[in-house]
Design brief:
With 264 residues, this protein is an alpha+beta fold. It contains 10 helices and 4 strands, in the order βααααααααββααβ. A 4-stranded antiparallel sheet has the order 3-2-1-4.
């Protein structure tokens, strides 16, 4: 399905309207730049074909968050490193700091589809949440939720097959933005374009659309498969809702924003 950001159900103040969501735009720009310069982007220095695929695996392991490393506080030994690419070996990363890898992992994506799928949600819902909470509070919450979601996933998966695989992407932090949006504007109207109905635009309240999204992530945790870390989405969304509940300025009227955009 395709979502467009909520229609206006109230008017923001002049100060809110004039405030540019700098943090949201910088997060988007930085993530795009990291992809462009990395092996999953357009950088020719990583070669092509199997060599590039191997370079991507090594890059993700170097800058991604590995559950077993996060809980031990040390990079994995060489005998525990495995690659999903045939013929590719992952070198040890003795200088890697697992705690900082959570931060870097938020800006590393597996390809353009992974990047766009995440950042469109941030582009649509991030500016409204940033405007309501303020830039510093929004950035602090975004990074903190990313850390909490990643460590929560690490605790659950450290002793499974996924415990030695790198976790990358901003989906946990962005799920937190969605949870925060639901807390701030549960009755805002969201337009859904349904492909099976020839993209007929249907409008539903945010609590229904985002609530169903969360329920799908929760169901996917138990169903497993697909290689997507759905548990990160669940933890991020729930934490984002709680963060918005705790951080919302006193006296906030919860009026919906007027900004629109598109995500899928």
């Amino acid at each position: 399905m395709v979502l467009s950001a909520p229609a206006r159900a109230g008017s923001p103040t002049a100060e809110q309207t004039a405030r540019t969501p700098v943090v949201s735009y910088l997060l988007i720009a930085l993530s795009a730049l990291v992809l462009l310069l990395g092996p999953a982007g357009l950088n020719p220095m990583y070669g092509s074909g199997a060599a590039r695929a191997c370079a991507e695996q090594r890059y993700e392991h170097r800058w991604g968050a590995v559950p077993a490393e996060l809980l031990s506080g040390h990079p994995l030994a060489a005998d525990r490193l495995t690659s999903a690419t045939p013929g590719c070996t992952l070198p040890p990363t003795p200088g890697k700091i697992p705690e900082l890898s959570v931060l870097t992992s938020l800006f590393v994506h597996a390809g353009w589809l992974h990047l766009i799928g995440n950042l469109l949600f941030l582009f649509v819902f991030g500016p409204a949440v940033e405007t309501r909470l303020g830039r510093l509070r929004f950035l602090t919450g975004y990074l903190a939720i990313g850390y909490l979601a990643t460590y929560g996933y690490a605790i659950a998966e450290a002793h499974t097959a996924d415990g030695t695989r790198a976790l990358i992407g901003a989906s946990g932090a962005i799920a937190g933005v969605l949870g925060a949006y639901l807390r701030l504007w549960p009755r805002a109207r969201v337009t859904v374009l349904v492909p099976v109905l020839l993209f007929l635009p249907l409008r539903f309240p945010a609590w229904l659309v985002l609530g169903l999204w969360f329920a799908l992530q929760w169901w996917s945790v138990s169903s497993g498969g697909s290689g997507v870390a759905y548990l990160v989405h669940v933890i991020g969304f729930a934490t984002g809702w709680l963060f918005a509940w705790a951080a919302r300025p006193a006296g906030d009227t919860l009026s919906a924003p007027s900004r629109t955009g598109v995500a899928q």
